[in-house]
Prior knowledge:
The protein is extended, with a radius of gyration of 28 Å. About 15% of the residues are buried. The protein has a six-stranded mixed beta sheet. Helix content is about 25%, strand content about 40%. The chain has three helices and nine strands, in the order H-H-E-E-H-E-E-E-E-E-E-E. The chain has a domain of about 110 residues. Strand 5 and strand 6 form a beta hairpin. With about 180 residues, the chain is α+β, with helices and mostly antiparallel strands.
Amino acid sequence: MVEVKKFMTRKRLPAFFAGLSILFLMLLLSACGYNGTTTGSQPSTPSPSPSTPTPTPPLQVKNCGSLHTIRLLLVPTDQEIAKQDETCFAQAYAACHPATLVYSQSSLDTGTIHNFSIKNQNGRCTIADMVQTYIAPRPPHTTATYTCGSLALKADGLHVYSCGTIGDVFIPGSNVQ
């Protein structure tokens, strides 16, 4: 009994509880990895009958890239690929092929990120713009999602029209002023 009292009064008590906490944490984390699958034979599933239609795979979404501007000027590394990315997105819209394009505008410590996506909904081509905003050093948060009316690729860049309350979005193709 005296030895237990000496052990508890020494500075080893915090180390004992730290070790016990680590052991408990390891036990907890190992339980999180259990996915509930069992081993052994699984019941066989019947093969589909010939009359069962085979679903067609959906069209793959084309990633047309991302463009960045700082105070409405393209980041220099993006100037070479800006036209390619904008052309990719405009062609996807013309063909009503699923595609995405990310456009971010930043200032000194604030920014807006436009996540554009093209979808074919029942034969109708739609453009969605999920807008995220941020104030450094906080991460971006989704502000709103808009459906845009149309888009056009012009000599000065890509114009996305009628995006909800934000109106038109202009993505410059180069730093020509």
